[in-house]
Amino acid sequence: MSLSPADSAAYWLRWQVLVYGALIAFPAAAAAALLPRLRRAAPPLRAADLWVSCWARLHPGWLLAYRAFAFAAAVALLARLLVGHGLTVFYFYTQWTFLLVTIYFAFATAISAHGCWVYSRKSLRKSDESHGFLNADVENRDVSNSISGERKKDETKMMVSYYEQIVNERRAGFWGWCMQIIYQTSAGATMLTDVTFWGLLVPFFYRDKFGLALVTDGMHSLNAVFLLIDTVLNNMPFPWYRMAFFVFWSCAYVTFQWVLHACGSLSWWPYPFLDLSSSGAPLWYLGMAIAHIPCFFLYWLVVKAKHTYFPRMFPHAYVRTV
User: Fold this and answer.
1) Residue 168 within a domain
2) Does 319 map to a domain?
3) What gap in Å lies between CA 256 and CA 269, rounded to an integer?
4) How many independent structural domains does the chain possess?
5) CA nearest to 193, candidates 300, 65, 291
6) Structural domain contains residue 322
7) Which segments cross the bilayer (predicted)?
8) How far are the Cα atoms of 136, 141, 142, 151 from residue 145, in angstroms, in the given order?
9) Which of 135-149, 235-249, 287-301 has the lowest mean pLDDT?
10) What mean pLDDT value characterizes the chain?
11) What is the domain range of residue 166?
12) Closest C-alpha to 296, from 263, 229, 248, 234
């Protein structure tokens, strides 16, 4: 439905719009109310968690290199899209999410670079401890089956050195918290974007009308690939309560769309299910609100599986410190 200044007031004063608004406002209010209580019960975030890999033999520089590559690739994709279509691409949730992923890798690259600098300074002061930090055999179990008693002592000493390096690390500051929040918001938004695009829009709405462009398809695949690879490598916690920020993110996008239409700046809906004049709009809004839960917890299950199965599959290489 195209809106004009003459009928916009009547359009927005309908009772149905109040129902749609409640479907947006209630989840956001609930998330805002619960977030402070849940955060107080969560363990502190250590600064080292942001730049140390969960793989004990992997130098932090490799994680930095990957994050820098992912950031450069994301910027290149966004730049190509902006050159071709301008700022109007940000009418879509996909580009909002991809921009958020890009911002995450910008934060991650900067913090990893700082972490590598901190690590290099410690290496110069205490080369033996840093060697143990990177190359320790970190099997967290009884080492009585080792070949010799001397090797057992060395492995135990190196393992303790690794854990002391992490545990004694100072807590993350403001920018570290921002990085983790953006990471988890990106994870949920990426799952929602890709599941909606490939499972709903392509089969039922967009395929015949727009076709599939290489850059657009890439955004709906590479966003998840970039984050999943980072998840396999990083040592960051993934507390479930930060789903609240994912809810805030989606509410901000819908509010953005409503403001554009209320002001008459946009006469079409980027996604058909956002059209308030549609007879199925209440069910669409309710369905998309509910979809946030499985999409976020799908990524949470990926992280849970990592912490559950990697220690069994790679007991001498994988270390969980979160």
Assistant:
1) yes
2) no
3) 12
4) 1
5) 291
6) no
7) 12-35, 68-92, 98-119, 181-206, 212-233, 245-271, 283-303
8) 17, 10, 8, 10
9) 135-149
10) 78
11) 8-313
12) 248
Q: What are the structure tokens assigned to 167, written together?
A: 């545990």
pLDDT value for 296: 95
Question: What are the tokens at 139?
Answer: 């099997």
pLDDT, tens digit (0-9, with 9 covering 90-100), for 67-90:
999 999 999 999 988 888 888 889
**Domain assignment of residue 287, yes or no:** yes
The residue to which tokens 């829009």 are assigned: 201
Going by pLDDT thresholds of 50, 70 and 90, the confidence category of residue 8 is low
